[in-house]
Amino acid sequence: AQKITQTQPGMFVQEKEAVTLDCTYDTSDQSYGLFWYKQPSSGEMIFLIYQGSYDEQNATEGRYSLNFQKARKSANLVISASQLGDSAMYFCAMRIPGSARQLTFGSGTQLTVLP
Amino acid sequence: EADIYQTPRYLVIGTGKKITLECSQTMGHDKMYWYQQDPGMELHLIHYSYGVNSTEKGDLSSESTVSRIRTEHFPLTLESARPSHTSQYLCASSEPGTTYPYEQYFGPGTRLTVT
């Protein structure tokens, strides 16, 4: 069974600084995908970044990058130059192999950016 | 821009009432999903669909039911609402028509309160 663990219930970061949100995963499959979503207080889920298990380079999307360490089964999200609008819940998720492409989510990290 | 809609956004209803949460997408996606999320907690998959006339139960047992008569429409029904059903319900969809990694697009959610 797949499992996602996010050990930081809450994080604080000063505006313009970088922050790392931790995510570890457990799976016996060789092929899998890891996603990060952002959930503002309004409730919608916003896709941020994706890392495939066979991708050799760490994914980057603008200010977001994914520190993928396959041997340690970790996929940490790094947000550079934090902005006040980055304050939100952040969820790490794993795609379960199979045709329905279901996602398993972690418990999330509440990030607060301080002015 | 994802075009996935959920109505109502907020619903307060008494115990024993029958409710239907609506979810529609205009992207022609085959796969659709329903998640349940308690405040500040992870998302749990309760139903998913591969396409028209196909529905499956997710990881979290739910007393709700779903139907998929049209590609664009994936309503969720509770025959008799109870206070334990109080939660946020998020609808999502994916594929085809999107590029790899086929991320799920989420609706804004319905916040249900059963009194």
In words, what does this structure look like?
- The complex is a heterodimer of chains A (115) and B (115).
- With 115 residues, chain A is mainly β.
- Chain A has no helices and twelve strands.
- Chain A has strands at 3-5, 10-14, 19-21, 24-26, 33-39, 46-52, 60-61, 64-69, 74-79, 88-95, 103-105, 109-114.
- Chain A is globular and about 40 Å long.
- Helices cover 0% and strands 48% of the residues of chain B.
- Chain B has strands spanning 4-7, 10-13, 19-25, 31-37, 43-51, 54-57, 65-66, 76-78, 87-94, 105-106, 110-114.
- In chain B, the strands form two sheets. In chain B, strands 2, 4, 5, 6, 9, 10 and 11 form a seven-stranded mixed β-sheet that branches.
- The mean pLDDT of chain B is 91.
- The interface between A and B is medium-sized, with 25 and 28 residues.
Helices and strands in order, then pairings?
The complex is a heterodimer of chains A (115) and B (115).
Chain A: E1 3-5, E2 10-14, E3 19-21, E4 24-26, E5 33-39, E6 46-52, E7 60-61, E8 64-69, E9 74-79, E10 88-95, E11 103-105, E12 109-114
Parallel strand pairs in A: 2-12
Antiparallel strand pairs in A: 1-4, 3-9, 5-6, 5-10, 7-8, 8-9, 10-11, 10-12
Chain B: E1 4-7, E2 10-13, E3 19-25, E4 31-37, E5 43-51, E6 54-57, E7 65-66, E8 76-78, E9 87-94, E10 105-106, E11 110-114
Parallel strand pairs in B: 2-11
Antiparallel strand pairs in B: 1-3, 3-8, 4-5, 4-9, 5-6, 7-8, 9-10, 9-11
